[in-house]
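Dear Dr. H.,

I hope your travels went smoothly. While you were away I took the liberty of generating a structure for the chain from your last submission, since the lab meeting agenda had it listed for discussion. I wanted you to have the full record in hand beforehand rather than looking at slides cold. The sequence, exactly as received, is reproduced here:
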Amino acid sequence: MSLAAEPRTGDRLRPHWMPTGWFQVGWSTDFPQGDVRPLRYFGSELVAYRDSGGTLRILDGHCRHLGGHLGYGGRVEGDCVVCPFHGWHWNPAGRNTHIPYQPDRPNKARRLRVWPVHERDGVVYIWHDALGRKPGSEPPNIFTDVAPHTVALEYHRCAPYGQIKFESLTLHPQLVVENAADPMHFRFVHGVRHFPVFLRRWEDEKHWFSQIGFGSRWREWQPDSHDGDTLSILNAGIGLSYTALSGSLNTLILLGTTPVDVGVSDMFQTVFLEKLPGDDPEVLRTRMAQATAQLPNDIAIWTRQRFEEPPALASAEGRAFRELRRWSRRWYPEIDGVAPLAGAGA
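The corresponding predicted structure, in token form, is as follows:
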């Protein structure tokens, strides 16, 4: 997939509610074999089910016959989802394959939209692009793609305590990914003692990465100045922010923020804890509580935040924000009639 050409250098970032990219819609445990589940994202009604081979399929949710919702009362037969209204069968390609009262003549003209799905490490992603472009890559591997030190470590499964969903939040995913350009907020929102500093930062067409050092011994842009606490953040598009916390306890966290409708998103927090000696269930619950305690503080800010463009930036933070917002433009294709993210300068 080739992303849309970036706007001119002087253009402002104009986020809207139909961004392109991979977005999380749940966890693998949410979709057991034999179940049919309704979903709603990007203003669309969807249906999710597993075919006979266990592959998760996500299609538009309304039957193309008379519009019955496949996700409410539908069932799985073989590789197809069956409409509860009149029993029409729809296969993973979105085609009608069987009409019970007209078995020799399925409707070949009507099709359901098929949403590309990817499952990795217990996380379920869908691809969204309002222009119909196909994904050109897969979502990152949180164990190998975020920080080199995580590759050799072993982690507990995220289920069940490391799977937390925040539903119907009044926030836009752009506000979440901008955390990667904002080390200063850790001093005020999370109470760290010293202002964190950038150690590394890079970007390519699909990713924006920063590594932040915590503690007075760190020196800006000197990632080897000591062995201490760091936070590595890899943004993959607008909807996915992967983080690796290093130090005495190594933790991996994925924040997935997915628009439901204009003005509303669901947020998914997926946490993997490093395997350590003595990790009995009580210790793991305590560690998980510590790893997830800070996100509500961010949500309290994001759900009341106004998007400022251009923002008034201090010189110490200006470059990172400008680079991230310039990179973000590619994820917002020009679409007629799409609702913008309201805010100053929008």
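Two observations you may find useful: The mean pLDDT is 93. Helices lie at 173-177, 185-189, 281-292, 295-302, 315-328.

With kind regards,
E. W.
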